[in-house]
Amino acid sequence: MLPCVCWLQLILILLPSVLWTRGENCPATCLCPDPHTVDCSGRGLTRLPDEIPLDVRRLLLADNWIPRIPSDFLVLYSDLVYLDLRNNSLSHIEPGTLSTTSRLVFLDLGSNNLTEIPKGTFGESRSLIKLRLGNNPYLSMVNEEAFLGLTSLRELELERNALSTLKVGALSQLPSLRVVRLEGNPWVCNCNFASLFAWLMENSHKLPNGVEGMECSLPMDGRRVSLTQLSKDSFRECQATLTLTDLLIIIFSGISVSVVAIMTSFFLASTVHCFQRWSKGTKGDEEESEE
């Protein structure tokens, strides 16, 4: 009789977890190891699964074929703090997907097909602490204001993408940044890279492997060199280099000054001429009155 009681107790203990894992609140193709975690990794999904519990906090969707995230996704799942979308088929993230009310702390978008990170992508998600964007082989552009408002972000991964340049403003606007990964990108050592190089040298402690783990190609022959072989003097010529915008401003300013000078000269000449005619007229009137 005693063994039967033990078996019954064991079944009663395990039954709730079994019912939760395979219960109605868990998507059919996923596992739910606890009441707030949904694990749909490696299920061959081509879209987000249906019937995800609204109170989910950890959503694991790695190693699938999901091409997009609905723009209202985090509005529906406002308790979500951990989202893993690594190794899917995402080509872009719609602006507004990550709203300012999002509680998201961890976001992994690595190993996807992202091509750019435009302004407003993350919607000033102030709770975000770790953001993974590495291993996107087509990611070649990050807007200077792409991370604007991510005031709590501590770790940013942009390694092994297709970045040849990156505006310093994209990094300097992250006040809480502690770790940034930029290695494995096809950086080009031109004047566009000069500001980023200066930032990297000043913030090398934020790079896991320091600048030793980064290389860039020389614009003349394409030869790859380590950043440790470069210095600020390597970009000395860039300080005297004028961009097309600078040249246009100078030309426009010169033309404007010339036009103003011509108009001023014409005005002064007209004034002097009128004054001379007025003086002659006044003198003639005086002579006539004397006669």
From TrEMBL:
Annotated SUPFAM superfamilies:
L domain-like
Q: Which Pfam families match?
A: LRR_1, LRR_8, LRRNT
Q: Where are the transmembrane segments?
A: 247-269
Name the record gives this protein:
Leucine rich repeat containing 38
Q: Where can this protein be found?
A: Cell membrane
Membrane topology term: Single-pass membrane protein
Using the record's annotation, list all stretches that form the LRRCT domain.
185-239
Record's signal peptide: 1-23
For this chain, one GO molecular function annotation is: transmembrane transporter binding
Which residues are in the LRRNT domain?
25-58
- This protein's UniProt keywords: Cell membrane, Disulfide bond, Ion channel, Ion transport, Leucine-rich repeat, Membrane, Repeat, Signal, Transmembrane, Transmembrane helix, Transport
What is the organism field in this record? Dicentrarchus labrax
For the keyword Transferase, the answer is no
| Subunit comment | Interacts with KCNMA1.
Please name the Gene3D superfamilies in this protein's record.
Ribonuclease Inhibitor
Where is it found, in Gene Ontology cellular component terms? voltage-gated potassium channel complex
